[in-house]
Specification:
Chains A, B, C: One of its GO terms (cellular component) is endomembrane system. Chains A, B, C: This is Ca(2+)/H(+) antiporter. Three copies of one chain form a homotrimer. By secondary structure, chain A is mostly helical. Helices cover 81% and strands 1% of the residues of chain A. The first copy, chain A, contains 15 helices and two strands. Chains in contact: A-B, A-C, B-C. At the A-C interface, helix 14 and helix 15 of A face helix 7 and helix 8 of C.
């Protein structure tokens, strides 16, 4: 059993601890931290269950499953927070997830991979196709913000309508992206599939893994409830604004599984796969998670538009530009990883120093 | 006779229909639509005439002719609209043409080409040189807007002076670009010339085509007059702002010939030529059409500066970034075409939802 | 003796002339111009002395010396100006140096090199690594401006704290960049070292060159004092704002040595080296000179933050985008050089027309 698995088993202990903290009223800060820690192993097991089920049901249905459940943890936390009315935190977590995947995940992968290998290469077509889709998706999801920031007299209603329209277009694009990668150009992606096959020699038990997925999903939802309930008091005790919480803290918890995967494979010199995880996750957030949240907010009666803070727009644009600049040569080394992490630190500092403004709790 | 030519012959019928609509007062909406349709075949014939004349007069003079008349339809519509005082529509049509060429034309070409061919390549040096010039030209033409948006207390006069100065620099750059492509580095462009030669086995009749060019130019000017006269009433009947009209509708009419050419050659797997048309046309608008309109406005006493709406700046910048991102790998497929079209739709939605502000009719 | 050296000897005459102008009170304009001219040969000799000393003390210490003294002239002028309280000019000179290196130096190199050679290539890994670091550094140094521009209610103190924090991160990144280029990946940079060796067959005299470096540094500091003292009156006599002076004039004086080197080697078809100078100097300004000035301002009691004018942000972003776009294909010709110079002229025009606003003298 690997060190990672032992860590995950240990972290499972935080499920009862967080429940105890909640019911015995040990304080919001303790609930917040323990619930956050409890989500990490559950997210990892949801990922494993999804992959095992995908192997059984075949590439097409499995691909769809992966595409839908790939960011499930994040989506669940965001839906719970949205239902609790924390619209600003949810919106901040969308931009924060994109920034975190492109700078923190990619940066850690390149740094830790680069400390072991002098130079790592990643030149597959998949990376390039994903990067284009990701660039488009990120730009599209930021357009309502750009429009609101550069125009005068745009009503809330117009922004809401534009956001829903953009969300519909993005979900359609996501469906077409799946059609491309699973049907018309599936051969481009075969390397990745072969790679997944390697790890499973005997056919996994479908019902077992469906059960695991179900239980983990329910537990993540439960822990998310406690995380969200304690969020406002806990972060204000830590002296953090809800913007910083949404942009930096929530995405680290929600994306921890991707972080672990991307870094692990980078240390095995599979940079193509590592970058696919980071870029693909950013793409899924902009093409699927974000749009679904806009439509869910509309259904739940908690209207959420895509009008982010202007500085979030700047931070995401900057992350995309730096990630493109560093990954465009198809090679990486420890310095490039450090540059990405430095960019993440500088952006984090800027969010830390950002004053509380009306509209953000 | 190809289907395209039959369609163009049919569209010629709209010349008498639009005249009837105008003189029999069938309403501005009918005049607007029929005049718009009548311009399409005229623009296509102007393009054919220019190319035939270019074959006769030789590469240098022919190249100059192509460079000057390449965007003639657009320039005529814009000059008529400028003379009628529709400065905002003219300015919007400049940014709209750039956006339309980079997203709509390139997107349709990649999509329709990609539905027939699994993967299409375009790797000529010409594409790269044009892309660099286009990037610079677009940035330069947007600088006065950026300056005005980011500074306080800039007078109209300063903006006008800066716009004229920028226009002069851009026309000089355009002249140098022609010198580069026709004299000092003409060998880079020889593929394109050979391609044009293929289609004409016998020497065309110079005077015939000069006559065609003259008649078409006059008719385009006539139809443009009717289009512009009916524009304000017609678009307000359709519930469209003049910004949307300028950014989306006018460029589709003005660039229809380029659209047809780019898509047709893309479907013959000549993606290099297809992209050259789209990128080259964007470049010509920023380096030649825009600057000429600034100077023409100054001469006509209808001062026009290069201070666009801030959101136009965002939309153009985004179009350039997406087009660069998608074309940089030298390959295309139907998904990339779809991504460009999706970006066009999202930007179109944003302009559709943009409220009417003072300064825009 | 080359023409360049004769010119430099001639320019040394401006040292006594500028002193005479200062003490005999010939007027601020004369002092300003003569002191500016006197700095040019001194900067060139400081560069030569640094390189000669680097040869003696070996690659590691020599590399550190080059990295620290590479932008010494600029740093000295900026420190003198900062001490005199000209914070706005110093800040403007940081952005101006980046713009000047990327557009003016790179543009002149590509143009003059391109007039002699039809096509020039530069494909070394060094150029790419430097470009990534430079992109990051420039983005990081601009983040406080972007944050201030897109947020409301940020106090001076917050901006100052954020600027110091960013400065510390950037200096750490600079140290890591040196570690990368001198230790862990030194083999990537060996071409450049060999190149430097060629020019010196016998071991240079260490003490002689240390003396030269010391004398030149003192003289540059002296001339900088006179330049800075006369700056405000002289530039207002020329009708220039202090913003234009800081962005355009001061960097031309401060970077003249790099300009001469980059253009000279470009004309010998060593484009890799030429671009390394331009990109590397931009990187050093953003990673080292700028951060050092922030910390020096704090020590000197002349607090300087990294909150530039919004249009400076636009101008630097645009310069980086154009330079990346033009250099990304690894080839250059005279047209690309002209495009860079045209961008510099357009940006210069925009700064020239920028009105004086409160906060800028």
């Amino acid at each position: 059993m690997s060190g990672k698995n032992i860590l995950f088993l240990f972290l499972l202990l935080f499920i009862p601890v967080s429940l105890a903290a909640h019911f015995l009223e040990w304080g919001d800060l303790v609930v917040f931290i323990t619930a956050g820690l409890a989500i990490l192993p559950l997210a990892a097991w949801m990922g494993t269950a999804t992959e095992e089920i995908a192997v059984v049901v075949g590439p097409t249905l499995g691909g769809l499953l992966n595409a839908t459940f790939g960011n499930a943890t994040e989506l669940i936390i965001a839906l719970v927070a949205l239902n609790a009315g924390l619209v600003d935190v949810v919106k901040a977590s969308i931009t924060g997830s994109i920034i975190g995947n492109l700078l923190l995940v990619m940066g850690l992968s390149m740094l830790l991979g680069g400390l072991r290998y002098k130079e790592q290469k990643f030149e597959s077509i998949v990376a390039r196709v994903n990067a284009s889709s990701m660039n488009l998706a990120v730009i599209a999801i930021l357009l309502p913000t750009a429009m609101n920031y550069t125009s005068i007299g745009i009503s809330e209603q117009i922004l809401q309508n534009l956001s829903v329209a953009v969300a519909v277009v993005l979900i359609l694009v996501y469906a077409l992206t799946l059609l491309f990668s699973m049907k018309t150009h599936a051969y481009l992606y075969e390397v990745g599939v072969a790679d997944a096959d390697e790890t499973s020699y005997k056919k996994p038990n479908l019902w077992l893994w469906c059960g695991v997925l179900l239980v983990c999903t329910l537990l993540v939802a439960l822990e998310s409830e406690m995380l969200v309930d304690s969020l406002e008091v806990a972060t204000s005790q830590l002296g953090l604004t809800s913007l910083f919480t949404g942009v930096i803290l929530v995405p680290i918890v929600g994306n921890a599984a991707e972080h672990a995967t991307a870094v692990t494979v980078a240390m095995k010199d599979k940079m193509d796969l590592s970058l696919s995880v980071a870029v693909g996750s950013s793409m899924q957030i902009a093409l699927f998670v974000g749009p679904v949240l806009v439509i869910a907010g509309w259904v739940l009666g908690k209207p959420m538009d895509l009008d982010f803070k202007p500085f979030e727009l700047v931070a995401v644009a900057v992350s995309v530009l730096i990630a493109n600049s560093i990954s465009s040569d198809g090679k990486s080394n420890w310095l490039e990883g450090t540059l990405l992490l430095a960019a993440y630190v500088v952006i984090g500092l800027a969010f830390y120093f950002q004053p509380v403004t009306p509209g953000i709790g």
